[in-house]
Amino acid sequence: xxxxxxxxxxxxxxxxxxxxxxxxxxxxxxxxxxxxxxxxxxxxxxxxxxxxxxxxxx
Length: 58
Prior knowledge:
Elements: H1 2-55
């Protein structure tokens, strides 16, 4: 009986640790997505500025 309780507790601990790791990965993914979005916007803004400059419109 004690062995089963220990095994159950060990599995619960493993699941908790894996959930924490997964949450960390989700946070990192969100950070990378935000960074990509920012970089894409910067590229777009830079491209638009370049187009305007090339057209000679100020």
